[in-house]
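Table S2 (continued). Query chain:
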Amino acid sequence: MNQTTYDRGIIKGRQEGLENGQRSLLRILMEERFGPLPTSFVDRLQTMTMDELIQLGKAAVKVNSIEELRL
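Corresponding output:
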């Protein structure tokens, strides 16, 4: 199946939208649980891939502090 440049752009945009939504949700949940997040943590969150975001979400429910995540 041949994809046009337009189709690839749509797919990439959707993927980026999903990643941004995941980042926002994780940040909101983690701020609710741990309080204000360190700037370095927020910066790292912005560069994570979808797989890394999923792993972070799984780890976040198992720890008692943001420091335990070792980011």
